[in-house]
Amino acid sequence: MTKNYFEIKRAGINTTFQDQGRNNLYHIGIPFSGAMDNRNYLLVNKLTGNKLDHPAIEFAYQGPLLKYYGNKISIAITGDVNFKIKRSEIIIDGKCYQTFNIQNGDELDIISTNKSVYGYLGIGGQIDLKYQWASCSTNTKANIGANNGKKLEENQKINISKINENLNNYKLDYINTKIENIRIIKGTNFDYFSEKGKKIFLEKEFTVSKLSDRMGMRLEGPKIENIVNTNIKSEGLIKGVIQVPADGNPIIMLSDHGTIGGYPKLGVVISADYDKLVQLTPGSKIKFKEVELSDAETLFKLYELETQNLISRI
C-alpha cells in the first residue's frame, strides 16, 4: 500500500487526469486530448514544483472533495475556483495561484468554479498513473488514458509514489481575463456558405449551448445558410475547427473531438484564443472576428511569450 495518498470523498463533475496530450495519432483516430486550458495547466505544475508536462487533475464546475493521508505535500489550484482546506476544526480559505502545504488528515474541498468551466489541481509529487501512448490524458468517450480512461470516482484513492522535496510556498498574481471576440481564420469550406451566412457568422452573437463538453461546443443563434452542400465527404478535423451541420448551428471541435467529420468547416478558432474559449459557460455569448493566418501566427507567439513570462515569475 502506498504511504501517501488522497481519498476521494466526492468526485466532482468530470474530474480527470490530464497532461499535454498525445501527438501524431490522428491517423488511427486518436485526438490530442490533454488539458483544455493549457496555460492554467502549465501554471499549476510550476506552482507545485513539477515538470511542466506532469499530470494534473482537471475538473469542471464542481471539483472533488479529497482527504489526504501521509507526509506533508504541496498543492495548488489554478483557474477561477472556490476551495477550502479543512484542518481539524480550522477552515482555511483557498486562493488560486498559490501553493499550500497539505498535512495528514487534511481535507481539500474544491467547491466550484466562478463563471468559468475548468480548474486544475496540481499535486507536488509523482502520481502513480499508467500512461498510454506516452500520455496519461483521459478521454472518457474512448476510455483512453489514466484511470482506465474513466472519470475519478467516489472512494477512489490517488496514490503518490514520491513527494517533491521542495515545500516552499509560491504565489502568482494573475487574473483570468475574458475576451470580447473569439478570433478565427477561414475554414476550408468557407465558400460553401452564402454571403448572408458569412455576414451573420462574423457580425451576429451566438450563445454557448448546454450541449457542450470536452469533445465539442454547440452554439445557438441565427442560422448560417449553406448554398453548396450540408454534408461533405468525411475529412480530417483539428482542435478549434468550426463545423456547421444542416441545422445551421455551429459546432466547435474541442480537445477530445473526433478526428474526421462530414460537416462543412466554416472557420477555425486561433490557438491563442482557445484557453478562453473553453472557459465559456453555457449561456455565454460569443462573437467571432476574422483574422489572417499571419495575424493568428503572431498572436500565438505573443500568447506563448506571455505564458512563459508568467511561468518565469513563479
Give descriptors for this structure.
alpha+beta; single chain; seven-stranded antiparallel sheet; 14% helix; Cyclophilin; eight-stranded mixed sheet; 314 residues
Description:
- This protein is α+β, with helices and mostly antiparallel strands.
- It has two domains: 160 residues, no CATH class; 131 residues, Cyclophilin-like (Cyclophilin, Beta Barrel), CATH 2.40.100.
- It is built from four helices and 22 strands.
- The strands form four sheets. The chain has an eight-stranded mixed beta sheet. It has a seven-stranded antiparallel beta sheet with strand order 7-6-9-4-1-12-11, with no helix packed on it.
- The radius of gyration is 20 Å and the shape is elongated.
How does the SSE layout of this entry go?
Blueprint: E1 4-10, E2 16-18, H1 38-47, E3 56-60, E4 65-69, E5 73-78, E6 81-87, E7 90-93, E8 100-102, E9 107-113, E10 118-123, E11 125-127, E12 157-163, E13 182-186, H2 195-203, E14 206-212, E15 216-220, E16 235-236, E17 241-243, E18 251-253, E19 260-261, E20 265-269, H3 274-278, E21 285-286, E22 288-290, H4 293-312
Parallel strand pairs: 13-22
Antiparallel strand pairs: 1-4, 1-12, 2-3, 3-10, 4-9, 5-8, 5-10, 6-7, 6-9, 11-12, 13-20, 14-15, 14-21, 15-18, 16-19, 17-18, 17-20
